Amino acid sequence: MKEMIAVQDLQAGMFVEELDRPWLGTPFLIEGFLIEDDEQLEQLRGCCSFVHVDRNRSTGTQWREPERAKAPERRAVEPGRQGNLVWHGRSGARGAVPDFLCLLRHFREGSMDSDTSQRAGGGLLARLAGLFGSSGEADPEDARELRPAQATEGRAEVYPVRTSVEQEMIAVAPAFYEARAVVERLIRDVESRTVPDLSQLTSTVSTLVQSVVRNPDALLWLTRLKRADEYAYNHAIDVSVHLAVFGRFIGLPPAAIEMLGTVGLMQDVGLVSLPAELLNKPGPLQPAEKKIFVEHVRHSIRILREECHLNEKVIETVARHHERIDGQGYPLGLIGEKIGIYAEMAGLVDTYCAMLSRRPYRSAVSTQAALEKINTLRNRKFSDAIVNQFVQCVGLYPIGTLVEMESGEIGVVIAQNRVRRLKPRLMLILGHDKKPLKHPATLNLLRDPVSRTGRPHAIRQALPPDAYGIDPQEYLLA
């Protein structure tokens, strides 16, 4: 429920979705934010005359239940026009339709390309934290839940969180570990030239996507529980889950999310055809070795088409997920919109997940460092719109992220807060002396719990996934 409000009538608790001027040049680093204090009110009054407030994402007395409006009458859309599109996340500049909306129409129509999409400039934000606004979902412990939008033509799906992280982890854990077994069997079948059994793959992906639709945080948490010596299996599942979560975030229909989940599991299956010494080399590849390595894409296409008989959308996305908008990707050196949005999403997620895993030649990096790196690739390797949406989707502190508190204690994020992104729910596992706590405490930073210093708990920084020798599995359901 969006309404235009004069700045003198604004109050704390309102969610500002759009300004009466472009975001660039204002004091606000996030495009869409919750008014927390008088300072923000004064800043708004100093630069705007009115703003658009989203009551569905406001809090406290400012929240309003979504109206149950009748679905708009369907009408033909003239070629070249954007139609009646509604976006549930970021807003563009005043009077403009966000560039990602143009892409959503092609998603729902089944197009693999983005030939008519725009590459709007967007704001290159000075600090990474400024990219994290609301995704349109409520905190799991919030007293209310956002309702899904009417399923109308041209409108992105809106998925409410239907279960808690703890409930969903218990429900989906068997399917998650079955997915790992399915990937192992698939790789063995490909290596032995046996026709893979895709019925199990299809069933497993469908189950995982259903879980992502209910609550995306549960599977993101489970992806943190991996062994460092099993990169191939872990990476495939990581990419599959993150792609499904990304698809959910931007409002793709379930069928498209399942397609992306399948792409994640299968996109690097051709690596099994490469020499093991090349894959396990503890250092950068030489030019001659790179020529051999890029051939894994051709092997993947052959395997998916001739042995797995997957549909062409999956194959085309796999074929292009190493392409980059600057033309420096492979194998075809495609430029910009010729890559297609699905493939660009897959390539970005593949890059992000690879940075989170430890390899023989480098350590894993923190989610914060990975997002900072992704941010440097915008408009170079990946389009501005894709990067913006992914960073908004993942958030500064994804599930399973190890964080150091201002008090010196170490915690692990167990649930995101999708309205106040810097205040997740977490579990403290190490004390200020970095020794394990006998009784780990669960904190919801939204409630401003007080630390031993007498000040509210606050996160100082995110940590690499293997910091202090912590094994997340010990705290899975504590």
Protein architecture, described:
By secondary structure, this protein is of the alpha+beta class. The chain folds into three domains: 120 residues, no CATH class; 230 residues, Hypothetical protein af1432 (Orthogonal Bundle); 74 residues, no CATH class. 36% of the residues lie in helices and 10% in strands. The chain has 14 helices and nine strands. A five-stranded antiparallel sheet has the order 8-7-6-5-9. It has a four-stranded antiparallel sheet with strand order 1-4-2-3, with no helix packed on it. Helix 11 crosses helix 12. The protein is globular and about 70 Å long. About 18% of the residues have low confidence.
SSE topology sketch:
Blueprint: E1 2-6, E2 15-19, E3 33-34, H1 38-47, E4 50-54, H2 99-108, H3 165-191, H4 198-214, H5 216-222, H6 231-249, H7 254-266, H8 276-279, H9 287-293, H10 295-307, H11 312-320, H12 341-355, H13 367-376, H14 384-394, E5 402-405, E6 410-415, E7 425-430, E8 436-444, E9 459-463
Antiparallel strand pairs: 1-4, 2-3, 2-4, 5-6, 5-9, 6-7, 7-8
How far apart the termini lie comes to: 38 Å
Structural class: alpha+beta
Count all strands and give the number: 9
CATH architecture descriptor name of the largest domain: Orthogonal Bundle
CATH class placement of the largest domain: Mainly Alpha
As laid out across the biggest beta sheet, the strand order is 8-7-6-5-9
β-sheet strand percentage: 5-15%
| Overall mean confidence score, pLDDT | 75
The CATH homologous superfamily name of the largest domain equals: Hypothetical protein af1432
Helix content: 25-40%
**Quick one: biggest sheet?**
5 strands, antiparallel
Helix count, per DSSP?
14
Q: List the secondary-structure elements in sequence, H or E.
A: EEEHEHHHHHHHHHHHHHEEEEE
CATH overall fold name of the largest domain: Hypothetical protein af1432
Structurally, the number of domains stands at 3
Q: What does the overall shape look like?
A: globular
> Which segments are poorly predicted (pLDDT under 50) over 5 or more consecutive residues?
68-154
How big is the Rg? 22 Å
